[in-house]
Amino acid sequence: MKEVPASGAFRQLEPGPIVLVTTSHQGKPNIMTMGFHMMIQHEPPLIGCVIGPWDHSYSALRSTGECVIAIPTIDLTRTVVDIGNCSGDTVDKFERFGLTLQPARSVAAPLIGECLANIECRVVDTVDAYNLFILEAERLWVDTDRKERRTLHHRGDGVFAADGDVLDFSERMEKWRHLPR
After folding, report:
1. What is the chain's mean pLDDT, rounded?
2. 59 falls within a domain
3. Which carries the bigger pLDDT value, residue 85 or residue 179?
4. Band of the pLDDT at 136, cuts 50, 70, 90?
5. What is the domain range of residue 31?
6. Nearest to 159 by CA among 41, 7, 18
7. Inside any domain, residue 2
8. What CA–CA distance (Å, rounded) separates 165 from 10?
């Protein structure tokens, strides 16, 4: 083993796929790219995410208390990176990147038609010291016909990994069979 700076811990514990977060504030939809998120619990489904005041979406999320977490696949990698490199205060990201707004059912923030899945969420708590939002997932939409299903994972400094092989050990999960799939 070789010791490396602890600041690189996130590269080893990467929380899951890169996601796109949509908000709608005063009738204006926006998208941001986000990598710092985690599942907190199954029921009710709670998701923790870090969105700081330096992000244009922060004020929209604080004001409205709702968003959509959209899960892109690797065919959208360039778009995902480019969304993260511009600000919604000066750019209509849906227009610039040719993404399809689809209406959500429970929140004003739009779904993204090109994504594999979209999760409608409401803020149920915040931890201001860490810019941490606790979101409750209210509705989940999945494009079951989508051919590309591999998600994108950020490894730091613009390096990404794609999902690889799927290993199905569900038959061994005796203790957890009661959880939704």
Report:
1. 90
2. yes
3. 85
4. very high
5. 15-176
6. 18
7. no
8. 22
